[in-house]
Amino acid sequence: MLACSFPAWTARAADENPPNQNAAEITNAGDEIALPTASNVSVFASGLNNPRGLKFGPDGFLYVAEGGTGGLNPPCVVVPAVGPYTGNVTGARISKISPHGFRTTVVDNLPSSQTSADSGSLISGVADVAFIGNNLYALLAGAGCSHGVPSVPNGVIRVNANSSWSLIANLSFFQKNHPVANPEPDDFEPDGTWYSMVAVGGDLYAVEPNHGELDKITPGVGVSRVVDISASQGHIVPTAVVFHNGNFYVGNLNTFPIVQGSSKVLKITTTGQITVLLRNLTTVLGLAFDSAGRLYVLENTTGNQFPTPGTGKVIRIEPTGNRTLIASGLFLPTAMTFGPDGALYVSNVGFGPPPNGLGQVLRITIP
Questions:
Q1: Which of 16, 132, 352, 353 might form a disulfide with 30, Cβ 3.0–4.6 angstroms?
Q2: How far apart are the C-alpha atoms of 306 and 254, rounded to whole Å?
């Protein structure tokens, strides 16, 4: 699981908060879904199932990773705090959205899994997408033995033009054979819960929150570790990654219950040196830089101890260090990216309600 995030938040959260209470707060909020009232926010696309990472492709379309619909197959390894997971070799997909907001399927029948009902039946599937040239790659987070999908590991896949796909990196295997320094014993998933991926040159870089690491995937070569974040930062649940001016920037979600101001943004060099860039953030799930080099931060939940619809925010970090509120009232947003038009595109209703097409992509114009 993604300790304090998706699909199960954290084992310690499960111990400290009655699971059914938390599940009801999230899943019963489907009728509350509403567009934030700010004039700079609009619905760009809908009909998505647990939308997560998103990127614009070279064709100008927006590609969206979807967690999917979960499954019923039991796991071969039970994660006690949130298990047993159940999964399916199908259920997740990647969609693409036209410039006019029309959704089509790029590839479906990808692995999807969910936590136990007591933990909210929270779903993982495809976590993120990225392009190297014209080649589309996707990050699987809902696969692997511990998630009820023993035939497919968590990893990176390449999507072909005919909608077939092939595994190019087995990240379940890599994590098993390259343990981090400070895993959380009460909150550990063997297959990981990969969350964010970015392409840099001919390589892909992915963040895994449950173990706490940033890894490099070179298609046709293999996987290597950039840095074990847990070694210096502990179990902080790193989530979002972006690359800017020669460095990685990684935001963290942190564990449950949510403590306002407990998240931060790390600056990580390509050789793995970590410094803290920003503090006093909350539940960071997305990072993006605009053309002027200003950093935007997506906060999933603010002002509450547990995931709360309608409290997500986008803030901008000004050159002075001051913070400007760009958008608020978001419904459990999960990722964001800039479009070629200079607007921000945000995955909204990214988890919580039943997977019946309630997921959205919001378009946020920048004031």
A1: 353
A2: 12
